[in-house]
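Lab notebook, page 48
Experiment: co-folding of the full assembly
Goal: obtain a model of how the components sit together before planning crosslinking
Operator: M.T.
Materials (sequences as entered):
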Amino acid sequence: MSAITTKSISAASLALAMGAALSLAAAPATAQDRMADKEKCFGVALKGKNDCKAGAGTTCAGTSKVDYQGNAWSLVPKGSCEKTASPSSPTGHGQLAEFKEKKA
Amino acid sequence: MMPKLVQPASPAGGVAAPGAASLPPRCGLGLKPEHFRGILETQPNVGFFEIHAENYMVAGGPLHHYLTQIRSHYPLSIHGVGLSIGGEGGLDAAHLDRLAALIDRYAPESFSEHLAWSSHGGVFLDDLLPLPYDRDSLSRVCAHVDQVQTRLGRRMLLENPATYVEFAASTFTEAEFIGEVVARTGCGLLLDVNNAYVSGVNHGRDPWACIEALPLAATGQIHLAGFARDVDAAGDPLLIDTHGAPVSQAVWALYRKVLERVGPMPTLIERDSDIPPLPVLLAEARRAEGLLQAVAGSFKGNAGPPQVSLPPTGGGLGGAWPWGRSGVAP
Amino acid sequence: MSTRHDFARALLDPELPCPAGLVAWNGSNPARRFQVYRNNVLVALVDALASNFVVTHELVGEAFFRAMAAVHVRAHPPRSPVLACYGADFPAFIASFIPAAGLPYLADVARLEYLRAVACHAADVSPVGEGALAAQLADEGGLPGLRFALHPSLAVLPSRFAVVSLWAAHQGVGDLAAVVPDVAETALVLRTGLEVEVIEIPPASGVFIAALQSGRPLGRAAEEATALGAGFDLAATLGLLLQKSAITTLHPSRSTP
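Observation: model returned without errors.
Model output:
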């Protein structure tokens, strides 16, 4: 960003903006609606990550040599992404099969 | 550009212990974020709440907000799961500092940790792993418990583990090993009855005999939890300490026998996975309270529960410390 | 000496044999018992990632997420016993994880989720009083050199992808099928009270806020944002920061760099 050529902004226009900002903040509806139309408040999962729980009843998840050796590398995402439009980038869904069995 | 106006989550900047300096001999519950609001709204009649220290080693936000409020109404137990007291290397000093800060902030009535390790070579493995019970481990564990008690300026309780393997190198039984640690460091015992049962079954021993061999006089708290069933390579039962089910009948029966031996004792119902609604846990807690009250009645006429017979004071820490300490420095 | 070392290595690498020196009371093969520990470690750490990357998980589905997370956990196990913010390297890992290459936006969605986790647990800091800001207005000449400390939970994420829309669609806001993933969006993440918010802001506002956060004075930050030429609205951006209690300290200075 330091490379950007900047034009000077006067102290007076900063003062004007700051004054407007203070009144915008005092009147929530206008400022917020325009800037934050996609805002949504949700609590982040607070779930305790440091708990003493052993993997319930199964002894296989950490142990499969198949998983370790390459299963992860042949999987294809199968979740809500299937509902999204395919990005226009060259690596669309159709190419996933070609990455089978490769390791990074 | 560091923020200057740090506002503590509580107006006092910390919470004084409400009254007693030790947990009441009642049943408590593990504190889960799922239940924060329900607890504050309904103020259930619970003896205490217990948190896992590492979950609260964050700067601010909702965890501290709710814990501060809940702590102002209930006694608190802080239970560490990440110190790696049974580790081969030295304790993580930065982690011990974080723990000390948390304990300063919330002034819990009890602090406990595990006879287990969870970090090695700078990597945290997030499980309570087993150690060989030999002289080498003993001197390390004692040194680590000493270090923790000295840094925190208080006595800690050490929890007996649930284990799935044993080591050919072990020269002590688990009970002998814990007995030595208690005698040498003056720490107390957090008797996890479920762990004793799980380990007993997993290693082909009578769980009650394993419990009886522990230094029961040093018991400061009891844990109860549920397990899952699996089998080992020979088809023998292998119980998994999931904390994901109600307390089993076998563990309730052992708990009753333990109470008859040690008297009323702060008792925790642990549930860390498949966490049910608060009323379900409260019902389990009431069952424990029933046993606690029954045993309190039978202990009333007597001189009370057996006195915790700590070893004579002595050794390097001097008389200013609230716990005894004796024996050979490891 | 090497008991714990062999044990620890074998936990994260199932191609290694069960460590030597383990026994079972009935003489059965201890490898089966050791698997319980392998399982515990992997499941616990994958779960820790899953709870910080909920939308990433939903986007790729359970099987893919857990397989990808397991590869990451083995390559980058946590270095601290505090797992609240485990996964700092996970977005970069996703960007290089070839099976996820068909979802080029996935790493940025993960970045957004990680910023939310950090914001959730950031320190509690009170906002600067509006009186103090109003007082600054009286000293117009000092405004260009005025520096701000912003709330420790605040972060700006400029993305080539529609990160906010993708994330919001998983919270029931907007239709996922209608989101065009490769439309650039800038996210502002911060905690107000107990809630972590994700707000889409114009790219120039993102440049301005990031400049303030890195310690540049008001005049300089506004100039950088204006230089983008995309109609930067200084009043609205400052208004948003005030509205969200995001300005925590003012550092007046006459010396503009």
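Interpretation: Chain B has one domain: 27-300.
Next step: discuss with group before ordering constructs.
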